[in-house]
Amino acid sequence: MRLLLGLPALLCLLLAVGILYQYAGGLRDRLRFIRQGRRVKIANGKWLYLCERGSDGPTIIFEAGIGATSQNWHGLQEDLAGVARTVAYDRGGLGWSSSQWTTERTPSNIALELHQMLRAARIDPPYLMVGHSFGGLVVRRFAAEYPDEVSGVVLVDPMRPEEWPPLNEDARKLVDRGVRLLGIAVPLAWFGLARLIATSMLCRSGSIARTVSRSAGDGGEHVLDRLTSELNKMPREIWPVVAAHWSNPHFYRGMVAHLKAVPASVLEMENAAPIEDAPVMLLTPHSAEPLSADTLRRVGANTQQIIAHSSGHWIHLDEPELVRGAIQAMIEQNGLHTNTRMSAPAEIAVAVASDADEFLDGNAGVAAGFAAGA
Questions:
Q1: pTM beyond 0.85, yes or no
Q2: What residues contact residue 327 under an 8 Å CB cut-off, 6+ apart?
Q3: Pairwise CA distance, residues 252 & 71, whole Å
Protein backbone atom coordinates (compact mmCIF):
# COMPACT_ATOMS: atom_id res chain seq x y z
CA MET A 1 0.00 0.00 0.00
CA ARG A 2 2.80 2.41 0.87
CA LEU A 3 4.42 1.60 -2.48
CA LEU A 4 1.21 2.41 -4.34
CA LEU A 5 0.79 5.64 -2.40
CA GLY A 6 4.39 6.58 -3.11
CA LEU A 7 4.21 6.14 -6.90
CA PRO A 8 2.28 9.40 -7.57
CA ALA A 9 4.74 11.30 -5.41
CA LEU A 10 7.68 9.75 -7.24
CA LEU A 11 6.10 10.57 -10.60
CA CYS A 12 5.53 14.18 -9.57
CA LEU A 13 9.14 14.39 -8.40
CA LEU A 14 10.43 13.03 -11.73
CA LEU A 15 8.27 15.48 -13.69
CA ALA A 16 9.49 18.37 -11.56
CA VAL A 17 13.11 17.32 -12.09
CA GLY A 18 12.47 17.07 -15.84
CA ILE A 19 10.95 20.56 -15.97
CA LEU A 20 13.86 22.00 -14.02
CA TYR A 21 16.35 20.16 -16.26
CA GLN A 22 14.64 21.56 -19.35
CA TYR A 23 14.44 25.12 -17.98
CA ALA A 24 18.09 25.21 -16.93
CA GLY A 25 19.22 23.66 -20.22
CA GLY A 26 17.17 26.09 -22.29
CA LEU A 27 18.62 29.06 -20.42
CA ARG A 28 22.15 27.73 -20.93
CA ASP A 29 21.47 27.18 -24.65
CA ARG A 30 20.34 30.77 -25.15
CA LEU A 31 23.37 32.15 -23.33
CA ARG A 32 25.75 29.97 -25.37
CA PHE A 33 24.36 30.16 -28.88
CA ILE A 34 22.15 33.19 -29.58
CA ARG A 35 25.16 35.51 -29.55
CA GLN A 36 26.44 33.76 -32.71
CA GLY A 37 23.89 35.81 -34.67
CA ARG A 38 21.45 38.60 -33.94
CA ARG A 39 17.73 39.02 -33.41
CA VAL A 40 15.80 41.60 -35.43
CA LYS A 41 12.37 42.96 -34.53
CA ILE A 42 9.90 43.19 -37.43
CA ALA A 43 6.59 45.00 -37.94
CA ASN A 44 4.38 42.69 -35.88
CA GLY A 45 6.58 43.00 -32.80
CA LYS A 46 8.09 39.52 -33.26
CA TRP A 47 11.77 38.70 -33.53
CA LEU A 48 13.60 36.87 -36.29
CA TYR A 49 17.09 35.47 -35.73
CA LEU A 50 19.74 35.72 -38.46
CA CYS A 51 23.33 34.59 -38.94
CA GLU A 52 25.62 36.63 -41.20
CA ARG A 53 28.96 35.64 -42.67
CA GLY A 54 31.10 37.82 -44.93
CA SER A 55 30.70 41.56 -45.41
CA ASP A 56 31.57 42.49 -49.01
CA GLY A 57 30.35 41.42 -52.42
CA PRO A 58 26.83 40.39 -53.46
CA THR A 59 24.25 39.58 -50.80
CA ILE A 60 23.03 35.96 -50.66
CA ILE A 61 19.88 35.09 -48.69
CA PHE A 62 19.40 31.45 -47.67
CA GLU A 63 15.97 29.95 -46.95
CA ALA A 64 15.92 26.51 -45.28
CA GLY A 65 13.57 23.55 -45.68
CA ILE A 66 10.34 23.17 -43.75
CA GLY A 67 11.82 21.78 -40.52
CA ALA A 68 15.31 23.27 -40.77
CA THR A 69 16.91 26.43 -39.44
CA SER A 70 19.77 28.77 -40.31
CA GLN A 71 22.24 26.10 -39.16
CA ASN A 72 21.40 24.02 -42.22
CA TRP A 73 23.40 26.50 -44.33
CA HIS A 74 26.41 26.81 -42.02
CA GLY A 75 28.88 25.03 -44.32
CA LEU A 76 27.96 27.01 -47.43
CA GLN A 77 27.96 30.27 -45.49
CA GLU A 78 31.49 29.61 -44.31
CA ASP A 79 32.62 28.67 -47.83
CA LEU A 80 31.12 31.79 -49.40
CA ALA A 81 32.01 34.29 -46.69
CA GLY A 82 35.16 35.36 -48.53
CA VAL A 83 33.31 36.36 -51.72
CA ALA A 84 29.88 37.52 -50.58
CA ARG A 85 27.72 38.69 -47.72
CA THR A 86 25.62 35.70 -46.71
CA VAL A 87 22.48 35.70 -44.57
CA ALA A 88 20.66 32.67 -43.16
CA TYR A 89 17.81 33.00 -40.66
CA ASP A 90 15.29 31.09 -38.58
CA ARG A 91 11.70 31.42 -39.78
CA GLY A 92 9.07 32.44 -37.25
CA GLY A 93 8.40 29.58 -34.85
CA LEU A 94 11.74 27.84 -35.43
CA GLY A 95 15.23 28.08 -33.99
CA TRP A 96 15.92 31.24 -32.01
CA SER A 97 13.14 33.32 -33.58
CA SER A 98 9.95 34.19 -31.70
CA SER A 99 7.87 31.12 -30.99
CA GLN A 100 4.31 32.48 -31.10
CA TRP A 101 2.99 33.47 -34.55
CA THR A 102 -0.60 34.26 -35.43
CA THR A 103 -0.02 34.32 -39.19
CA GLU A 104 -0.21 31.06 -41.13
CA ARG A 105 3.17 29.64 -42.17
CA THR A 106 2.60 30.10 -45.90
CA PRO A 107 5.15 31.36 -48.46
CA SER A 108 3.43 34.76 -48.83
CA ASN A 109 3.42 35.46 -45.08
CA ILE A 110 6.98 34.22 -44.64
CA ALA A 111 8.25 36.23 -47.63
CA LEU A 112 6.69 39.38 -46.14
CA GLU A 113 8.36 38.72 -42.78
CA LEU A 114 11.70 38.05 -44.48
CA HIS A 115 11.44 41.34 -46.35
CA GLN A 116 10.65 43.19 -43.13
CA MET A 117 13.63 41.54 -41.43
CA LEU A 118 16.05 42.52 -44.21
CA ARG A 119 14.84 46.12 -44.07
CA ALA A 120 15.03 46.29 -40.28
CA ALA A 121 18.51 44.71 -40.32
CA ARG A 122 19.65 47.22 -42.96
CA ILE A 123 20.60 44.51 -45.42
CA ASP A 124 20.14 46.21 -48.77
CA PRO A 125 19.21 44.65 -52.13
CA PRO A 126 19.86 43.28 -54.66
CA TYR A 127 19.58 39.77 -53.23
CA LEU A 128 20.58 36.42 -54.66
CA MET A 129 17.95 34.10 -53.17
CA VAL A 130 18.77 30.45 -52.38
CA GLY A 131 15.99 28.14 -51.16
CA HIS A 132 15.85 24.44 -50.31
CA SER A 133 12.65 22.35 -50.45
CA PHE A 134 9.83 24.38 -48.81
CA GLY A 135 12.27 27.29 -48.76
CA GLY A 136 12.16 27.16 -52.55
CA LEU A 137 8.49 28.19 -52.43
CA VAL A 138 9.35 31.06 -50.11
CA VAL A 139 12.07 32.49 -52.34
CA ARG A 140 9.84 32.10 -55.41
CA ARG A 141 7.19 34.13 -53.62
CA PHE A 142 9.76 36.68 -52.50
CA ALA A 143 11.04 37.11 -56.06
CA ALA A 144 7.48 37.58 -57.32
CA GLU A 145 6.59 40.14 -54.63
CA TYR A 146 9.84 42.13 -54.80
CA PRO A 147 11.19 41.65 -58.34
CA ASP A 148 13.28 44.84 -58.28
CA GLU A 149 15.23 43.54 -55.29
CA VAL A 150 16.16 40.07 -56.59
CA SER A 151 19.10 39.53 -58.94
CA GLY A 152 18.77 35.75 -59.22
CA VAL A 153 17.27 32.63 -57.66
CA VAL A 154 18.84 29.23 -56.92
CA LEU A 155 16.35 26.48 -56.04
CA VAL A 156 17.76 23.38 -54.33
CA ASP A 157 15.32 20.53 -54.99
CA PRO A 158 12.36 22.84 -54.35
CA MET A 159 9.10 21.47 -52.98
CA ARG A 160 6.75 20.43 -55.78
CA PRO A 161 3.19 21.51 -54.92
CA GLU A 162 1.64 18.77 -57.05
CA GLU A 163 3.10 16.14 -54.71
CA TRP A 164 1.35 17.45 -51.58
CA PRO A 165 -2.24 17.85 -50.36
CA PRO A 166 -4.72 18.97 -51.44
CA LEU A 167 -3.40 18.35 -54.97
CA ASN A 168 -2.17 14.92 -53.92
CA GLU A 169 -4.45 13.50 -51.24
CA ASP A 170 -2.27 10.40 -50.89
CA ALA A 171 0.31 12.56 -49.13
CA ARG A 172 -2.17 13.89 -46.56
CA LYS A 173 -1.60 10.86 -44.32
CA LEU A 174 2.12 11.68 -44.23
CA VAL A 175 1.41 15.27 -43.19
CA ASP A 176 -1.17 14.24 -40.59
CA ARG A 177 1.20 11.64 -39.13
CA GLY A 178 3.94 14.24 -38.86
CA VAL A 179 1.60 16.62 -37.05
CA ARG A 180 0.59 13.89 -34.56
CA LEU A 181 4.17 12.84 -33.83
CA LEU A 182 5.35 16.42 -33.39
CA GLY A 183 2.39 17.09 -31.13
CA ILE A 184 3.57 14.25 -28.90
CA ALA A 185 7.09 15.70 -28.93
CA VAL A 186 5.93 19.01 -27.40
CA PRO A 187 5.16 17.68 -23.88
CA LEU A 188 8.17 15.36 -24.05
CA ALA A 189 10.32 18.44 -24.64
CA TRP A 190 8.69 20.37 -21.77
CA PHE A 191 9.64 17.55 -19.39
CA GLY A 192 13.23 17.30 -20.68
CA LEU A 193 13.02 13.96 -22.50
CA ALA A 194 13.67 15.51 -25.94
CA ARG A 195 16.71 17.27 -24.47
CA LEU A 196 17.97 14.02 -22.97
CA ILE A 197 17.72 12.21 -26.33
CA ALA A 198 19.06 15.08 -28.50
CA THR A 199 21.99 15.72 -26.16
CA SER A 200 22.82 12.01 -26.07
CA MET A 201 22.74 11.73 -29.85
CA LEU A 202 24.61 14.93 -30.73
CA CYS A 203 26.79 15.77 -27.74
CA ARG A 204 27.39 12.47 -25.93
CA SER A 205 27.97 8.80 -26.75
CA GLY A 206 24.47 8.29 -28.12
CA SER A 207 23.70 5.36 -25.81
CA ILE A 208 20.56 6.93 -24.35
CA ALA A 209 19.23 7.82 -27.81
CA ARG A 210 19.85 4.26 -29.03
CA THR A 211 18.12 2.76 -25.99
CA VAL A 212 15.05 4.94 -26.48
CA SER A 213 14.93 4.23 -30.22
CA ARG A 214 15.11 0.48 -29.64
CA SER A 215 12.25 0.67 -27.16
CA ALA A 216 10.17 2.25 -29.94
CA GLY A 217 10.74 -0.76 -32.22
CA ASP A 218 12.10 -0.92 -35.76
CA GLY A 219 10.51 2.40 -36.62
CA GLY A 220 12.42 4.21 -33.88
CA GLU A 221 15.75 2.73 -34.93
CA HIS A 222 15.03 3.60 -38.56
CA VAL A 223 14.34 7.24 -37.65
CA LEU A 224 17.53 7.43 -35.58
CA ASP A 225 19.58 5.98 -38.44
CA ARG A 226 18.11 8.49 -40.89
CA LEU A 227 18.80 11.41 -38.57
CA THR A 228 22.35 10.25 -37.91
CA SER A 229 23.00 9.83 -41.63
CA GLU A 230 21.91 13.39 -42.41
CA LEU A 231 23.65 14.91 -39.39
CA ASN A 232 26.95 13.30 -40.38
CA LYS A 233 26.89 15.51 -43.48
CA MET A 234 26.79 18.67 -41.35
CA PRO A 235 29.80 20.26 -39.60
CA ARG A 236 30.19 18.85 -36.11
CA GLU A 237 30.63 22.30 -34.60
CA ILE A 238 26.94 23.03 -35.16
CA TRP A 239 25.66 19.79 -33.63
CA PRO A 240 25.26 21.35 -30.14
CA VAL A 241 23.14 24.13 -31.69
CA VAL A 242 20.96 21.57 -33.48
CA ALA A 243 20.59 19.69 -30.19
CA ALA A 244 19.49 22.91 -28.51
CA HIS A 245 16.83 23.47 -31.18
CA TRP A 246 15.57 19.89 -30.93
CA SER A 247 15.37 20.25 -27.13
CA ASN A 248 13.04 23.25 -27.30
CA PRO A 249 9.28 22.52 -27.15
CA HIS A 250 8.62 25.68 -29.19
CA PHE A 251 10.59 24.17 -32.06
CA TYR A 252 8.11 21.30 -32.36
CA ARG A 253 5.17 23.68 -32.13
CA GLY A 254 6.70 25.70 -34.95
CA MET A 255 7.10 22.58 -37.08
CA VAL A 256 3.47 21.65 -36.44
CA ALA A 257 2.43 25.10 -37.63
CA HIS A 258 4.48 24.69 -40.82
CA LEU A 259 3.05 21.25 -41.56
CA LYS A 260 -0.53 22.35 -40.91
CA ALA A 261 0.00 25.15 -43.44
CA VAL A 262 1.12 22.78 -46.22
CA PRO A 263 -2.32 22.61 -47.94
CA ALA A 264 -2.66 26.38 -47.89
CA SER A 265 0.91 26.77 -49.17
CA VAL A 266 0.23 24.33 -52.01
CA LEU A 267 -2.93 26.15 -53.09
CA GLU A 268 -1.09 29.45 -52.92
CA MET A 269 1.73 28.26 -55.17
CA GLU A 270 -0.25 25.98 -57.51
CA ASN A 271 -0.85 28.70 -60.09
CA ALA A 272 1.76 31.19 -58.91
CA ALA A 273 3.04 33.53 -61.60
CA PRO A 274 6.51 32.60 -62.91
CA ILE A 275 9.54 34.65 -61.98
CA GLU A 276 9.91 37.04 -64.89
CA ASP A 277 12.71 39.43 -64.05
CA ALA A 278 15.41 37.23 -62.56
CA PRO A 279 17.23 34.12 -63.83
CA VAL A 280 16.52 30.87 -61.99
CA MET A 281 18.82 27.90 -61.55
CA LEU A 282 17.11 24.74 -60.27
CA LEU A 283 18.99 21.73 -58.91
CA THR A 284 17.23 18.35 -59.05
CA PRO A 285 18.57 15.18 -57.36
CA HIS A 286 19.14 12.05 -59.40
CA SER A 287 16.51 10.21 -57.34
CA ALA A 288 13.72 12.56 -58.50
CA GLU A 289 12.05 12.87 -61.87
CA PRO A 290 13.53 15.89 -63.72
CA LEU A 291 11.11 18.74 -64.17
CA SER A 292 9.69 19.09 -67.66
CA ALA A 293 10.40 22.12 -69.82
CA ASP A 294 6.80 23.28 -69.30
CA THR A 295 7.13 23.02 -65.51
CA LEU A 296 10.41 24.93 -65.61
CA ARG A 297 8.69 27.72 -67.52
CA ARG A 298 6.02 27.91 -64.82
CA VAL A 299 8.76 28.39 -62.23
CA GLY A 300 10.53 31.14 -64.14
CA ALA A 301 10.75 32.58 -67.62
CA ASN A 302 14.50 31.94 -67.60
CA THR A 303 14.98 28.69 -65.66
CA GLN A 304 17.89 26.29 -66.05
CA GLN A 305 17.88 22.80 -64.51
CA ILE A 306 20.95 20.95 -63.29
CA ILE A 307 20.81 17.28 -62.29
CA ALA A 308 22.69 16.42 -59.08
CA HIS A 309 23.76 12.86 -59.86
CA SER A 310 25.31 12.16 -56.45
CA SER A 311 22.62 13.64 -54.24
CA GLY A 312 19.38 12.88 -52.51
CA HIS A 313 16.96 15.58 -51.36
CA TRP A 314 19.62 17.44 -49.33
CA ILE A 315 21.79 18.45 -52.27
CA HIS A 316 23.53 21.22 -50.33
CA LEU A 317 24.74 18.58 -47.84
CA ASP A 318 25.45 15.78 -50.34
CA GLU A 319 27.17 17.98 -52.96
CA PRO A 320 27.81 21.40 -51.42
CA GLU A 321 30.32 22.15 -54.18
CA LEU A 322 27.52 21.86 -56.75
CA VAL A 323 25.30 24.37 -54.94
CA ARG A 324 28.29 26.63 -54.36
CA GLY A 325 29.09 26.43 -58.06
CA ALA A 326 25.51 27.28 -59.01
CA ILE A 327 25.62 30.35 -56.77
CA GLN A 328 28.94 31.45 -58.23
CA ALA A 329 27.65 30.92 -61.77
CA MET A 330 24.61 33.04 -60.99
CA ILE A 331 26.83 35.78 -59.57
CA GLU A 332 29.00 35.78 -62.71
CA GLN A 333 25.96 35.61 -64.98
CA ASN A 334 24.60 38.77 -63.37
CA GLY A 335 27.94 40.55 -63.32
CA LEU A 336 27.81 41.00 -59.55
CA HIS A 337 30.99 42.03 -57.80
CA THR A 338 33.00 39.57 -55.69
CA ASN A 339 36.32 40.11 -53.96
CA THR A 340 37.73 36.74 -54.97
CA ARG A 341 37.00 34.76 -58.09
CA MET A 342 35.70 31.28 -57.34
CA SER A 343 35.32 29.10 -60.41
CA ALA A 344 32.06 27.27 -60.96
CA PRO A 345 32.10 23.57 -61.88
CA ALA A 346 32.19 22.93 -65.62
CA GLU A 347 28.65 21.54 -65.73
CA ILE A 348 27.29 24.73 -64.17
CA ALA A 349 29.24 26.88 -66.59
CA VAL A 350 27.79 24.93 -69.52
CA ALA A 351 24.25 25.62 -68.31
CA VAL A 352 24.87 29.32 -67.80
CA ALA A 353 26.55 29.71 -71.16
CA SER A 354 23.65 28.08 -73.02
CA ASP A 355 20.84 30.13 -74.47
CA ALA A 356 17.86 30.09 -72.10
CA ASP A 357 15.22 29.37 -74.74
CA GLU A 358 17.27 26.55 -76.23
CA PHE A 359 17.80 25.11 -72.78
CA LEU A 360 14.11 25.17 -71.94
CA ASP A 361 13.16 23.54 -75.24
CA GLY A 362 15.55 20.65 -74.66
CA ASN A 363 17.96 20.41 -71.72
CA ALA A 364 19.32 16.97 -72.55
CA GLY A 365 22.56 18.50 -73.83
CA VAL A 366 23.20 20.28 -70.55
CA ALA A 367 22.40 17.13 -68.57
CA ALA A 368 24.82 15.18 -70.77
CA GLY A 369 27.46 17.83 -70.18
CA PHE A 370 26.95 17.50 -66.46
CA ALA A 371 27.21 13.71 -66.62
CA ALA A 372 30.49 13.99 -68.50
CA GLY A 373 31.85 16.47 -65.97
CA ALA A 374 30.81 14.26 -63.06
A1: yes
A2: 60, 76, 80, 84, 128, 130, 154
A3: 16
The CATH homologous superfamily of the domain defined by 36-167+270-373 = Alpha/Beta hydrolase fold, catalytic domain (3.40.50.1820)
Quote the Cα angle for 317-158-326, to 5°. Answer: 60
Residue type at 33 in one-letter notation:
F
- Domain spans of the chain? 36-167+270-373, 169-262
Per-residue pLDDT of the chain (374 residues; tens, 9 = 90+): 565 666 777 788 888 999 999 999 999 999 999 999 999 999 889 999 999 999 889 999 999 999 999 999 999 999 999 999 999 999 999 999 999 888 999 999 999 999 999 999 999 999 999 999 999 999 999 999 999 999 999 999 999 999 999 999 999 999 999 999 999 999 999 999 999 999 998 887 777 766 666 665 555 555 566 667 778 889 999 999 999 999 999 999 999 999 999 999 999 999 999 999 999 999 999 999 999 999 999 999 999 999 999 999 999 999 999 999 999 999 988 776 554 444 455 555 444 433 333 332 333 332 223 222 23
- Please state the length of the chain: 374
Residue type, 232: N
HSE at residue 256, side-chain half, CA atoms within 13 A, is 16
For residues 268 and 140, what is the distance between their CA atoms, to the nearest angstrom? Answer: 12
Q: In what order do the strands lie in the sheet with 150-156?
A: 38-41, 47-53, 85-90, 59-63, 127-132, 150-156, 280-285, 303-308
AA letter at 72: N
Query: 107: alpha, beta or left, given left = phi > 0 and alpha = psi -120 to 50?
Result: alpha
**3-class DSSP assignment, residue 371:** helix
| CA atoms of 26 and 151, how far apart (whole Å) | 39
